[in-house]
Amino acid sequence: MATGRTHRPATRSRGIPEATVARLPLYLRALTALSERSVPTVSSEELAAAAGVNSAKLRKDFSYLGSYGTRGVGYDVEYLVYQISRELGLTQDWPVVIVGIGNLGAALANYGGFASRGFRVAALIDADPAMAGKPVAGIPVQHTDELEKIIDDNGVSIGVIATPAGAAQQVCDRLVAAGVTSILNFAPTVLSVPDGVDVRKVDLSIELQILAFHEQRKAGEEAAAAAADGAGPVATTRGESESADKGPDGDVPAVMPA
Amino acid sequence: MATGRTHRPATRSRGIPEATVARLPLYLRALTALSERSVPTVSSEELAAAAGVNSAKLRKDFSYLGSYGTRGVGYDVEYLVYQISRELGLTQDWPVVIVGIGNLGAALANYGGFASRGFRVAALIDADPAMAGKPVAGIPVQHTDELEKIIDDNGVSIGVIATPAGAAQQVCDRLVAAGVTSILNFAPTVLSVPDGVDVRKVDLSIELQILAFHEQRKAGEEAAAAAADGAGPVATTRGESESADKGPDGDVPAVMPA
DNA sequence: AATTGTGAACGAATTCACAGCG
DNA sequence: CGCTGTGAATTCGTTCACAATT
User: Fold this and answer.
1) CA of B244 and C1' of D7: distance in angstroms?
2) Does B172 lie at the interface with A, CB-CB under 8 angstroms?
3) A44 within a domain of the structure (yes/no)
4) Would B30 be classed as within a structural domain?
5) What pLDDT score does B253 carry?
6) Which segments show compositional bias classed as Basic and acidic residues (chains A, B) (predicted)?
7) Given its phi and psi angles, is residue A112 left (phi above 0), alpha (psi -120 to 50 degrees) or beta?
8) Which of residues 219-248 of B touch A (CB under 8 A)?
């Protein structure tokens, strides 16, 4: 992107890397905790530790937002909270609907971290007529028939799909047709959506499978190590650490707590 | 990884890229669906479409596992299912414990995709004595006091944390001390673990915040587009398509369905 | 003196494009 | 002839290391 030698990109240049965006919520959470403890400033080192990343990465991330720190001192906690919130669009209100009020949908509806960050559960929707009217987390469940009206009345642009896999695409299509442009999908299916609609996926079984892969690899390495004792040279290279275990550093993905 | 010019990595070389590992479960799901419909073979193009990735990526991914396709024809569905399952370690049984049986823990316990893929819920654990003995998803909840014994008796190496944030690190420490080496964390906290322990994180509020960011960006662009009509030149560069919308392609992260 | 902000080096992941093979 | 498998080119992300700044 050019050397930007001209004057200065004033505030920020636009085009924050996706990887950085994915970490901003992490920083925000750590900062909020500091803010609650009335800590006035943090260094990149401290904040990075709290967020579980390394400090160079954090500084580079912040550099995409602008120059919000003070050399020799660190970052002003309140100010950064505000800047990141604004960057993420959390200074505005985001009404969301949750479709599919089973165990998971109920868990999501009850999740406190929602309201705390600009998100507001505008409605709960389920296809089961028996659910209609029953309150979950204090909000009465509405029937799927009302979906379009609900989206429209509340100006909802973010939808959460917590239905069984079979119903997901259909629900998705209706959400999109009704005007939703961001979807968080908990159903184990690939959703197809038109351009301009964002989908993020959260899939337990995939995460477990990834863990199983690493778990298996560990077991294999132990075996190799044991074998190395008893007998001659083992083919595997080991000792190179494989680059894969990365320490306690968080990974790429992420989504949702109790 | 050196050029590996020596002889040949025989089956596979070791060191499958992390990004590839994260996609294998996706391919596996698509393949399983095909298998159930008794489809005998697929081309990289078809399978890629079903998994929501592009075909070059899929072929490159498979190339790390070995040469399991047939040129001019495609891939044998059953054979690939087996190879990927084996690679992911799903041909063995993985007992898991779920700690924290609130709404979310219950949702996880009830999640069917578990058993289907080598995972078996060995126990449900909760700190609330009132929960003890109550069956959830047909499995009686046990008290946290039993944690170490349960891990040990069942040879559990994978733990799922679905507790409130405040309890997560403590639970984590106990799991690790008891021998768990892979953790799936649903609590909104950064866990610190010793080397050799893998942690994956699933965090709803983070995913929503990422969606909000993109949602906001869309709104901004609309506004900019509208503004471009009315008045003079706008500062922002636009038209460069920003690289960020990537189309309907899935994103990086992932985790869990109803 | 301490800590940010950032070019530059590096490494990982994706995409291209085509040779190789069935 | 069609489709896989893969080097080479490219893009994206991380880390290094240090000059700039308070």
Assistant:
1) 28
2) no
3) yes
4) yes
5) 31
6) 239-249
7) alpha
8) 236-237, 242-245, 247-248
Looking at residue B223, its pLDDT comes to: 72
Closest by Cα among A53, A67, A52 to A13 = A67
Which of B29, B197, B201 is opposite residue A254, by nearest beta carbon?
A: B201
Cβ distance A110 to B88 less than 8 Å, yes or no, reads no
What is the number of structural domains in chain B?
A: 2
What's A160's domain CATH number? 3.40.50.720
How many CB atoms are located within 10 Å of the residue B118 CB? 18
Specify the pTM: 0.85
Q: Which residue has the least CA–C1' distance to nucleotide C16?
A: B56
Mean pLDDT taken over chain B: 85
Domain identity same for B190 and B128: yes
- Do A215 and B182 lie within an 8 Å CB cutoff? yes
Interface test with B, best of A209, A216, A238 (most B CBs within 10 A): A209
To the nearest whole Å, the CA of A169 is away from the closest chain B CA by: 13
SS (H, E, C) chain A: CCCCCCCCCCCCCCCCCHHHHHHHHHHHHHHHHHHHCCCCEECHHHHHHHHCCCHHHHHHHHHHHCCCEECCCEEEHHHHHHHHHHHHCCCCCEEEEEECCCHHHHHHHHCCHHHHCCEEEEEEEECCCCCCCCEECCEEEEEHHHHHHHHHHHCCCEEEECCCHHHHHHHHHHHHHHCCCEEEECCCCCCCCCCCCEEEECCHHHHHHHHHHHHHHHHHHHHHHHHHHHCCCCCCCCCCCCCCCCCCCCCCCCCCCC
The band of B14, judged by pLDDT with boundaries at 50, 70 and 90, is: low
- Nearest nucleotide from residue B252 CA, by C1' atom: C13
For residue A116, what pLDDT is reported?
72
Same domain? For A99 and A198 the reply is yes
What single-letter DSSP state applies at residue B202? -
Backbone angles phi, psi at A246, to 5 degrees: 50, 5
| Six-digit token string for B119 | 């995972």
- What is the C-alpha separation between A184 and B211, in angstroms, rounded? 8
- Are B53 and B106 found together in one domain? no
Provide the pLDDT for residue A220. 76
* Chain A nearest CA to B70, separation (Å): 26
Low-confidence stretches of chain A (pLDDT < 70) are 1-14, 221, 224-258
Helices and strands in chain B: count of H runs, count of E runs: 9, 10
Which of B71, B88, B105 marks a domain boundary?
B88
Per-residue pLDDT, averaged over B221-245, amounts to 45
The residue segments making up the domain with residue A83 are 18-88
